[in-house]
Write a structure and sequence with these properties.
421 residues, alpha+beta, 15 helices, 57% helix, globular, Defence against restriction A N-terminal domain-containing protein
């Protein structure tokens, strides 16, 4: 299904932003180029953009990463899969909505992985402005834009009493910067800074406590029972287990981001679907998972929840660093680097979830043994990453906030290792 006119306009609006700085992308290739869905965003994690693109798209061909544009050349720094023919398909899709670009895809190491096969055109002066020397105002904006955008997003998601005004003002700042009026953007940013750096009430949303809104209270009341219902339904191995898992993940992500209204809407639909699974398969049908497979199913759910926890804890650390550094021009580079910390978690991917899901649907024998070995390889990769200096110090010795990034991963991996034997 082609992108809606509103989504297409939003994509077009993000192209000038990608000319000025690298931003996230999610991509779902269509069965034909015109059915492709591409989403760009200044701050959203690329993996979230990929899930959104897949939801709106028409195929399982999905990838994500960071995108930058120079002249008429769009470079996709892929963190997900390199899809066969993705550059050529994307070029045709963009041309169909009047965005003419040469597309190249790079692997996580920065090597050329896919090319659209078209010769590179020389961009006009307007498109090459990003390569020209920047003014002092533009350079200052580049230093503060990322950290301040993270602070705005955090305060808005946390239900700040002036969230609407903050969001509107920041939107005006970004629009001014996109129009190369960096002085106006900096002026707006300076007026916003006191609000963004002011201490938040103890125990409020910024300390990770739940919001006092009615929707937040309702979510807090239903979430534990819904999770139990979710795990019970998945233990029956329903045909729609992937959709159920995606819905649960989306609901928890929305709640963690402070959008409890959206989480409740998803939860209502999910509860109906889960109850239908239990009604159909709760009496011991042939689709019920053998008891020896249940631990693998639980392990899959555990790792998915752990990855979500790690992302939340890393976001907490990013916010602490930005709070401490963004107000000081000399420390602004540290705040800018903090906004990239979540990319450290890319190594903890969804491979283990995928393998454990396949084990759930594989009878005891050589094939399941091979899958268990594949899962052990993923465990080894994750454990090796945790032994690095960064993850050895991130929880307690980062100097800004105590978090549980590495500890959450170690605890989950230890439990899953016991299941694999």
């Amino acid at each position: 299904m082609p992108m809606s006119p509103e989504a297409t306009d939003e994509l077009k609006a993000m192209i000038p932003v990608a000319r000025k700085r690298t931003i996230g992308f999610g991509l779902c290739l269509g069965k034909k180029p015109e059915g492709t869905v591409m989403m760009l965003h200044r701050m959203k994690d690329p993996s979230i953009l990929a899930r959104q693109a897949k939801k709106e798209g028409e195929s399982p061909k999905v990838t994500f990463g960071m995108v930058e544009i120079k002249g008429k050349k769009m470079m996709l720094h892929c963190q997900g899969d390199i899809l066969p023919g993705m550059s050529k398909t994307l070029r045709k899709f963009l041309a169909g909505i009047d965005i003419k670009m040469k597309i190249v895809a790079l692997d996580p190491d920065g090597n050329l992985a896919d090319d659209d096969g078209e010769p590179e055109e020389e961009g006009d002066q307007a498109e090459d402005r990003a390569d020209e020397p920047q003014s002092p105002e533009a350079q200052n904006w580049a230093k503060i834009a990322g950290p301040m955008a993270a602070m705005v997003e955090r305060l808005v998601a946390g239900g700040h009493e002036k969230a609407a005004q903050i969001q509107a003002a920041w939107a005006r700042a970004e629009q001014a910067a996109d129009a190369d009026n960096h002085q106006e953007a900096l002026t707006i940013a300076a007026k916003l800074r006191p609000l963004l750096t002011a201490p938040q009430p103890q125990g409020g949303p910024q300390d990770g406590a739940p919001s006092d809104s009615p929707d937040a209270k309702r979510w807090g009341a239903i979430a534990p029972a819904l999770e139990q219902l979710f795990q019970k339904a998945l233990s029956l191995n329903p045909e729609n287990r992937s959709q159920l898992g995606a819905a649960w993940a989306m609901a928890t992500e929305k709640a963690e981001a402070g959008d409890h209204a959206a989480a409740l809407q998803i939860a209502a639909r999910l509860k109906t679907a889960l109850e239908a699974v239990l009604a159909k398969g709760g009496s011991g049908t042939e689709r019920e998972i053998p008891k020896d497979v249940v631990p693998f199913q639980k392990s899959r759910v555990l790792w998915g929840a752990t990855r979500s926890t790690m992302m939340k804890e890393m976001s907490k650390l990013e916010s602490a660093i930005v709070d401490a550094c963004a107000g000081d021009p000399e420390l602004a580079p540290i705040a800018a680097e903090a906004s990239e910390l979540r990319r450290r978690l890319d190594v903890f991917d969804a491979r283990l979830e995928d393998v454990l899901d396949r084990i759930t649907n594989t009878p005891e024998g050589d094939e399941r043994t091979a899958l268990k070995n594949e899962a052990r390889v993923a465990l080894k990769d994750y454990s090796t990453a945790l032994q690095g200096d960064f993850f050895a110090e991130v929880d307690n010795d980062n100097g800004f906030a105590q978090v549980a990034v590495a500890a959450s991963a170690r605890k989950a991996l230890e439990a899953i290792a016991k299941v694999l034997g």
